[in-house]
Amino acid sequence: MDWDPINHYKDVAVAERYDRERFSGLPGRVFNALERRTLRRAFAKVDRSLQVLDLPCGTGRLAETLLEDGFRVVGVDISAPMLEVAQRKLQRFGSNFVTRVGDVRELARSEPARYDVALCARVLMHFPLEGQIEFLKSVAMLTKGTVMFSQSLSTPYQRTRRRFKKLLGNAPPAAYPITEAELKILLKGAGLREARRHRLSPPISEAILVVAEHL
After folding, report:
1. Which of 174, 137, 136, 135 has the alpha carbon at shortest distance from 158?
2. Which domains are delineated in the chain?
3. Residue 210: how many other CB atoms lie within 10 Å
4. What pLDDT is attached to residue 1?
5. Average pLDDT over the chain, rounded to an integer
6. Residue 129 above 60 pLDDT?
7. Residues near 119 by Cβ (< 8 Å), separated by ≥ 6?
8. pLDDT of residue 203
């Protein structure tokens, strides 16, 4: 990778244009709708009285879905500018949405098992497997119950799609997608086991949402 995914999103200009650049075009709108639908399926049986940790929260795109469904959400992100955008967008939810700026690794050491449920979306694919394990393990340490996380699944079909899209000049959707074997390593390293998974749309997306429990 030729950019730092941590410091990149601390840039105010990046935060302000993030939603517009990623989700205003037709492909972005389709992906957003699929991801929100999948998130609702994953959280369908989760008690609405539980507090959800959304980390990284970013601009609050997925937090909004959870808030609309009646959850209380704590949005944590290492980027203050991204959270400022989220606060403006989601101010209508009042005290049901609060934000905190913080590094997941530091929070895991100081506040273990603080949250009921966690959502860790669209971040792991920015790091090699070792970094993914460290990140997800920290999220799991912050959580008493279920941890849901997204990743890009590397299968023969999806690898073929990636090669074709590269020939067309399209950037890959994830820098570090993982195979089924790597997914098992990720889960074990984070102290989790897979309970179930949801696919956004296998023919057009490599994205999955894994619902995991503590070992």
Report:
1. 174
2. 5-214 (3.40.50.150)
3. 23
4. 47
5. 91
6. yes
7. 39, 52, 53, 54, 55, 62, 66, 148, 149
8. 75
